[in-house]
Amino acid sequence: MQYELANVQSYNKTVCPACHTNPFAIHIDGNKKLFRYEKVGRGLRESFYSESVFAADNDVTNHLNHIESLKTKVLYGGRWQHGSGLTTGEETEQIFSYMSRYNSTTKNMLKTEREEELSESSFFWNQRKHDSLARVLASRFCKAKEAAELIRKELADLSLDEKQLLIWIAELTNLAQSLNKRSVSQNDVQKGIELVCDSIRTKKSHISSVAVSSKMRSRYRAKIEADKKKLRELIAVYNEDNTEKLSVDIAEEGNFPWYNDTPQPTDNVTLQEKRNAAEKLHMYNRTMEEQNVIQLEMKSYLDFYRKKLEEITQRLDDVQNKSALPSWIIEVSIRYQY
What we know:
Elements: H1 2-8, H2 57-67, H3 91-99, H4 103-106, H5 111-157, H6 162-179, H7 186-209, H8 214-240, H9 248-252, H10 257-260, H11 271-321, E1 330-332, E2 335-337
Antiparallel strand pairs: 1-2
C-alpha cells in the first residue's frame, strides 16, 4: 500500500533528486553477496514490483553479452582523472554491504518473493538517502570548500608555479606509461624503482592510517605484494647493467645507488617529492570540480521538487474538482495501474 500511495503522490524512490537528469559519476559493482540456492523453485507469479528495481532476466542476459566485448584500461586513480571531482565511487559497495544482510533470509525464497523483499529493502535505503540528501549536499559543499582552501595554502608553501607542476605531472605520466612496455630505458628503470618504492611506502602507511577493517588491510597488502613483484622485476633489469647490485630491502629504504655515486644537485627533486606535489595540485583541482558539481546537484535537487510540487498540486485539483477517477489512476481488480 505504501508503494501504491507513493505512485499516487508521484514519488519514485528509485530516482535521485540531485542527479536525476544527468548523473555525474557511476560506479559498477556486481558483487552483491546475495546468493540463491539452485534447488529453490522460481514460482508461478510475477513480482508485484515488476521491473521497477530488478531488470528482466532477458535484458540482463543481453546486457552481459554486450559488455563482455568492452575493454577498459585505467592508468591512474580517480584523483588523477580530470573531471572526477571528489566522488568516492564506493556508493554501490555501501549499498551491497547493506543488502548483503538480507542474504540469509532470501536465499531460500522463491524468485518472486525474493525480488519483492529485496525491492523493498532498496526502497528503504533510497528513502533514507532522500531524507538526508539536502543536509548531505550542504555538508559536502562545505567540506570541499574547506579542503580547497587548505590545499591552496599547502601549494603556496611549496613555492612552485603551476607550469613546473604540470611538467612534473607529464614526467610521471610518461614514466608510468613507459613502465607498461616490455623494454624500458635504464633511466626509466631507475625512476620506475623510485616510483614503485614510493607506492609501497604510501600503501604501508595507509594500512595503519586509512584502513578501518581487515578487508581493507588485506586489499592494501595484496596491492603491496603486486608492487613488490614489479619492483623485483625492475631491480633485475637494473642489476643486469650495473656492477653495484641493488636489493629490494635497500630500495624500499630509499637508498638508491644513482644518488650515492655522485653528489646530488641542489635543484634535483626526487620522484617522491614530485609525486606529492603533483597529487596536491590534482587534489586542489578535484576539490574545485567538486564544488561545481555539488552546485549543479543542488540546482537539480530544487528543480526536481519544484516540478514535483506542481505535479502534485495538479493531481490534487483533479481529485477535488472531478467526481470520476482521474485519467492517471484506473482501478483494476484489487490493485491499481498507473
